[in-house]
Write a structure and sequence with these properties.
Layout: E1 8-12, H1 14-23, H2 30-40, E2 44-48, H3 58-67, E3 72-76, H4 80-89, E4 93-96, H5 116-128, E5 132-137, H6 141-150, E6 154-158, H7 160-167, H8 171-190, E7 194-198, H9 206-210, E8 215-220, H10 222-231, H11 233-248
Parallel strand pairs: 1-2, 1-8, 2-3, 3-4, 4-5, 5-6, 6-7, 7-8
Helix pairs in contact: 2-3, 2-11, 5-6, 7-8, 10-11
Length: 249
């Protein structure tokens, strides 16, 4: 596999809902943002329905399923409630993520190795319903091996640590984290998994990650929604797409 493979961009629209919910109004509408993202070149839309419904709500999931022309990547915790919702809507893909009420955002990857039996059983009915299942994990070999055994088709590697180290100016550690992400992507690909990545990526950090040849998709949200305040959502996505393509050239 070479870096000439086109890298897909999934746009997470959670924080359009965060802005809407701050005023308890009907706008801005996450579906409208998703449609604008599709028009700007997004290959898919990601939305995370949290237990506390802090941003995306159940009605948003229904609206996205009805209105999108590109695939919906439905992020969720591995709970019976969320499994029922996923089975009712049958999105293109489900990405299982760790979730704690106290966290501002997802702080790390799933401990698949420590919860392999339960997650394998949890994934089975989703697969049977024709839903592609992804696991949001770190790059540790034990987590990748457990993910490969679980029945998931995809792993999404957590890039948050890499992005945080870059923002803090800890460049030696950042570069070591990038090497670990590359090794994790190679290992996961070698075990038959499709490999995605995401969390915290921006214009400065996306290039070295996008250049990892085994990656098939990046999921990016918070930065794009924030940048849209200044330049618009379409131009923000177009610039991210440009940088991703440049890194693959």
């Amino acid at each position: 596999m070479t870096a000439t493979h086109r890298l897909r961009l999934g746009v997470n629209i959670d924080h359009v809902a965060t802005l809407r919910n701050a005023r308890g109004s009907a706008y801005p509408d996450p579906l409208r943002a998703a449609l604008l993202a599709e028009a700007a070149g997004a290959d898919g839309i990601t939305a995370h329905l949290r237990e506390d419904r802090r941003h995306i709500r159940d009605a948003d999931v229904a609206a996205l399923m009805a209105g999108l022309s590109r695939p919906l990547n439905f992020e969720m915790a591995a709970t019976p409630e969320m499994q029922d919702i996923a089975l009712a809507h049958r999105p293109h893909a489900v990405c299982l993520v760790p979730e704690r009420r106290e966290e501002r955002t997802t702080e790390g990857g799933l401990d698949v190795a420590g919860d392999e039996v339960r997650l394998t059983a949890f994934i089975a009915p989703l697969r049977a319903a024709g839903i592609r299942v992804s696991l949001f994990i770190g790059h540790a070999p034990a987590q990748i091996a457990a993910a490969a055994r679980s029945g998931a088709a995809v792993v999404e590697l957590h890039t948050g640590a890499y992005c945080d180290l870059h923002a803090e100016g800890r460049f030696v550690e950042r570069d070591a984290e990038l090497v670990a992400l590359r090794q994790g992507a190679e290992l996961a690909f070698g075990q038959g998994l499709e490999v995605h990545a995401g969390h915290g990526l921006n214009f400065e950090t996306v290039g070295p990650v996008a250049a990892i040849p085994q990656l098939r998709e990046l999921n990016i949200g918070h930065f794009l929604i924030g940048e849209a305040v200044f330049i618009g959502l379409g131009p923000a996505i177009a610039e991210m797409r440009r940088r991703m393509d440049e890194a693959r050239a």
